[in-house]
Design a protein that fits this description.
166 residues, mainly alpha, Rna Polymerase Sigma Factor, Chain: A, Arc Repressor Mutant, subunit A, 2 domains, 8 helices, 0% strand, sigma factor, RNA_pol_sigma-70_dom, sigma factor activity
């Protein structure tokens, strides 16, 4: 489970030492609160525990970012940001896992956090806004900007082109 937790933490922070610290803190929280774990609801205790631990790890990362260096902007979405459309990307399936993670890690902490929470963790904008103490509009705006910046980063670090349907 250590490797699993490291992968999650490393999506949120840029330094290996920070990720290791967050993993350790997550394990401490897991062991302190293991009595609250309810495995009676389902037959697959291991999957339940892994899901519960994932939530602990993600919340630990969010708490760390909130305390240390994440300065969230809680302004509402500006009209030009809403005009960014999600487009189909040609060649994305050719990108390696490592290339995608490196591109995500180049995003600013704010954009990276919102992107991870929405795209990877599957939270709604309402849940992200509550977790990070920002407005729903700011969450949507940050996600849109993250996607836009991610496209630019991927185009700069690769020779892949992005297909824009006519």
């Amino acid at each position: 489970m250590h490797g699993y937790a490291m992968k999650i933490c490393y999506r949120y922070v840029n330094k290996l030492e920070e990720a290791e610290e967050l993993v350790n803190e997550s394990f401490i929280k897991l062991f302190r609160n293991i009595g609250q774990f309810d495995d009676g609801r389902q037959a697959d205790t291991e999957a339940l525990l892994k899901g519960w631990f994932k939530k602990i790890v993600v919340n630990t990362c969010i708490d760390y970012l909130r305390k240390s260096h994440l300065k969230l902007v809680s302004r509402e979405t500006v009209p030009e940001v809403e005009s960014f459309s999600d487009i189909q990307e040609n060649g994305l399936d050719r990108l390696s896992y490592r290339e995608i993670i490196e591109a995500i890690r180049k995003l600013t902490p704010v954009y990276r956090t919102v992107f991870n929470l929405f795209v990877i963790e599957g939270l709604t904008h309402e849940e992200i806004a509550e977790q990070l103490g920002i407005s729903v509009g700011a969450s949507k705006s940050n996600l849109s900007k993250a996607r836009h910046n991610l496209r630019k980063i991927i185009m700069q670090q690769t020779d892949y082109t992005i297909y824009v349907p006519s």
